[in-house]
Amino acid sequence: MSKSVKIAIAVAVCLAIGYGSGLATQSSITTWFPTLNKPFFNPPNWLFAPVWTILYVMMGVSAGLIWSKMETVPILVKKALWVFTIQLILNALWSFLFFGMCNPFLALIEILLLWLMIVETIKVFKSIDALASKLLIPYFLWVSFAMILNGWIWWLNR
Question: How far apart are the C-alpha atoms of 133 and 63, rounded to whole Å?
């Protein structure tokens, strides 16, 4: 399988996870979420979908680049893709906890775990492909912001 095909498959998987997360979000974005007190730096709702779409594409490209190195360093690539998969599952779980269960506190605990797994993913990706790790930096920064936002929302509504 070519590098391009691996990248395309990885992007499609990441976008599918993002789509599923969006479904969990939709249940309360117009009902529960507007009733919450939010900090002054809360972005407008319309911003989240395009930002996440770009981030999921970058994550997919990153994972595809790593996957394409399977013949070169198979043991390291398998480990890296497992770490990536765990963080991707945690990514999807956050939407379910925050929006699906309407539980900012549980989501805050979970996003901390997600943040740590993103750090680990960047670290293990860097040992295989520098570009792949750099493609995850905007994701890391956005989740860092989301973690702060999640914390403030929990604090303001506890």
Answer: 9
